[in-house]
């Protein structure tokens, strides 16, 4: 089937042909036959790099109104936004900023790219553009499997279906075992394909030989080198590039440094580009590796550095990229050879094997259509049994996608949001909404009953939900849902604000402690040698903290992580530069930025809650009603801190 055969406006056909897309790949043709251009609901389960983006575009461009493209990660949102913005005369909006969608409107856009959190937030805020959407495309729908994100996605899809029942839905997925079950849940037709634009061989390296799934072998003699180094050198000798997956940021950097020293290629321009903006040890290490034609890629990199590295690799200025597994999820940087060096991940308690699905996504990055004759992906069996590794990952079926909605965290948030958004006014309506989730499709929805009871009691006790004749969210509950924080965060903030309001000295550190001591802040790890210093700091500044430092109840060690995080933010606001923060706290620049963004969101949420408490309309007062609680000082401090944070972050 050719692009010119499609009933698309000529300008779009020209656009695609200009990109070298003339005839459809077989899975794309199958998706068209299944009705993506006729408004039908379709789940397309296709391998990495088999052209899912075009499937999405065909659906969105033929839809009878605006379209919404839902992505799991912000990095992917930017990439898709750029791709769709090139479509002629199509206005594209992007919603990825953190969470609160109150002031955003996409009424004028033809395509909106958003994370699932952002769509959830827009629904909670009653955003009008959501109900005008004629076609929803969900990218990486298999992430229904993910803790945290998965429940948000399934509840959001259930709500969208309530809001706009005849909306078209197209879900894109990696090839997973139970794609049919996902399609069944969504009342969609399944298009399932294993076709790839370029041949892929997968194999395991063991003792000087890679044995492939097709029975072929390749001898790679490592000599005195580590096997992965030899495997990289081998493909570069052959004119290809290598993408090496390792299991930690540190490993990515260390391995890139050792490969960079080999000078497979020189890329002085890339190195200069990185060095210009590099103030930290991470940036300098990246520039140094780039000198030798090697890059590394992980979540600690600054966004600018990440995109320089991605582009330099695509343009073949870099010969090798050492990456953590996050790169496997979507970002488009294919290479002739993918080497999965580490197939286990540290979970905090020990090492666990990577899921098959994740390893297959890494494999799928192998082979650049038009450039490479084929792609090859290999695992390295060092210290493990090669046969076992082969059995686990080569030719194995990926795991089933399973709903993660049966968790206290997920239900706490989504039960409150469902009540606050008016999707349910009593228990049976709440159960009814939950019965349209993926969880209910896979399991017996009554398995949720006890957890929902427990969550409702908690929301009642914290003044967020009222249980009279029916169920309703209180003003506080509605606010907490709207500002998109976990109800635990909402309750902690209410309590801490009450304490702060009665304190003599409320400083920036006080408000930073309040927001860092919440479920929604990811606090920084405290190294053993730091604990003493942090503890002394807390003692010295006890009067600025809402927690009783000298008479602490609960887990002091974990509160020290709160103090550390608050201090990093305090220093950042005071103008300490990223290199010094790295030195003082061992925190990478990419992480500081993420912390600052999260802090900005939590400060604004806390501000809204403080305003609510101060005007006295609250149904829940944190302190003795007879006491004279004055929230003005803490509110002022919150506003100042947020303004200062916005200032330094914008620089
Ligand atoms: N029919 C086609 N003919 C030629 N090239 C195509 C065709 N469809 C897609 N491509 C090209 O193939 C490449 C991979 O496509 P795309 O990024 O859509 O893959 P994907 O399935 O979305 O992969 P991922 O798993 O990374 O999301 C792109 O460069 C795209 O332009």
Automatic annotation (TrEMBL):
PROSITE patterns (alphabetical): HELICASE_ATP_BIND_1 (PS51192), HELICASE_CTER (PS51194)
UniProt domain Helicase ATP-binding: residue ranges: 33-194
Domain Helicase C-terminal residues, every copy: 227-419
Residues where ATP binds: 28
Any GO MF annotation of the entry: hydrolase activity, acting on acid anhydrides, in phosphorus-containing anhydrides
Signal peptide: none
Gene3D superfamilies: 1.10.3380.30, P-loop containing nucleotide triphosphate hydrolases (3.40.50.300)
Identification of the protein by name: ATP-dependent DNA helicase Hel308
Species of origin: Natranaeroarchaeum sulfidigenes
Lineage: Archaea, Methanobacteriati, Methanobacteriota, Stenosarchaea group, Halobacteria
Gene this chain is encoded by: bRR2
């Amino acid at each position: 089937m050719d692009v010119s055969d499609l009933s698309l406006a000529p300008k779009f056909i020209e656009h695609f042909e200009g990109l070298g897309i003339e005839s459809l790949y077989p899975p794309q043709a199958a998706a068209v036959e299944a009705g993506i251009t006729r408004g039908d609901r379709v789940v397309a389960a296709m391998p990495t790099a088999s052209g899912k983006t075009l499937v999405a575009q065909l659906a969105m461009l033929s839809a009878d109104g605006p379209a919404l493209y839902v992505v799991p990660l912000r990095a992917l949102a930017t990439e898709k936004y750029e791709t769709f913005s090139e479509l002629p005369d199509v206005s594209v909006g992007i919603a990825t900023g953190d969470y609160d969608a109150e002031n955003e409107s996409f009424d004028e856009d033809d395509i909106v790219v958003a994370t699932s959190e952002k769509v959830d937030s827009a629904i909670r805020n009653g955003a009008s553009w959501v109900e005008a959407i004629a076609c929803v495309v969900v990218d990486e729908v298999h992430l229904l499997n993910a803790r945290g994100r998965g429940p948000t996605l399934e509840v959001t899809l259930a709500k969208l279906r309530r809001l706009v029942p005849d909306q078209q839905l197209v879900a894109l997925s990696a090839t997973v075992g139970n794609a049919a079950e996902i399609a069944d849940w969504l009342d969609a037709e399944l298009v399932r394909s294993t076709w790839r634009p370029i041949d892929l061989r997968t194999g395991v390296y063991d003792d000087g030989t890679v044995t492939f799934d097709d029975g072929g072998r390749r001898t790679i003699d490592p000599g005195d080198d580590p096997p992965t180094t030899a495997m990289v050198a081998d493909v570069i000798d052959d004119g290809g590039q290598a993408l090496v997956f390792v299991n930690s940021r540190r490993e990515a950097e260390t391995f890139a440094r050792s490969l960079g020293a080999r000078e497979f290629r020189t890329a002085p321009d890339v190195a200069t580009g990185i060095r210009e903006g590099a103030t930290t040890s991470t940036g300098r290490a990246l520039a140094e590796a780039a000198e030798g034609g090697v890059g590394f890629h992980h979540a600690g990199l600054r966004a600018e550095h990440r995109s320089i590295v991605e582009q330099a690799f695509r343009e073949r200025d870099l010969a090798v990229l050492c990456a953590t597994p996050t790169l496997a999820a979507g970002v488009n940087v294919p290479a002739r050879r993918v080497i999965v060096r580490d197939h286990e991940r540290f979970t905090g308690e020990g090492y666990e094997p990577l899921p098959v699905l994740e390893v297959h996504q890494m494999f799928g990055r192998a082979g650049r259509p038009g450039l490479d004759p084929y792609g090859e992906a290999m695992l390295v069996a060092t210290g493990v049994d090669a046969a076992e590794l082969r059995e686990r990952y080569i030719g194995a079926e990926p795991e089933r996608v399973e709903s993660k909605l049966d968790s206290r965290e997920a239900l706490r948030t989504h039960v409150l949001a469902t009540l606050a958004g008016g999707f349910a006014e009593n228990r049976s309506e709440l159960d009814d909404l939950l019965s349209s989730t993926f969880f209910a499709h896979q399991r017996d929805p009554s398995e949720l009953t006890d957890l929902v009871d427990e969550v409702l009691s908690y929301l009642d006790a914290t003044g967020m939900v009222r249980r009279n004749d029916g169920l309703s969210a209180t003003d506080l509950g509605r606010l907490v849902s709207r500002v998109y924080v976990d109800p635990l965060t909402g309750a902690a903030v209410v309590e801490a604000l009450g304490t702060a309001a009665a304190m003599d000295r409320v400083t920036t550190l006080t408000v930073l402690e309040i927001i860092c001591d919440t479920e929604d802040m990811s606090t920084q790890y405290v190294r053993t040698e730091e604990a003493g210093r942090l503890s002394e700091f807390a003692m010295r500044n006890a009067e600025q903290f809402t927690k009783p430092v000298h008479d602490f109840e609960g887990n002091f060690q974990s509160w020290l992580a709160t103090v550390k995080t608050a201090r990093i933010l305090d220093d950042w606001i005071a103008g300490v530069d990223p290199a010094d923060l790295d030195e003082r706290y061992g925190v990478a620049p990419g992480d500081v930025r993420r912390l600052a963004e999260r802090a900005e969101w939590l400060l604004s949420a806390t501000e809204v809650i403080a305003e609510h408490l101060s005007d006295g309309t609250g149904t829940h007062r944190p302190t003795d009603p007879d006491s004279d609680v004055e929230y003005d000082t803490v509110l002022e401090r919150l506003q100042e801190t947020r303004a200062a944070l916005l200032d330094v972050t914008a620089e």
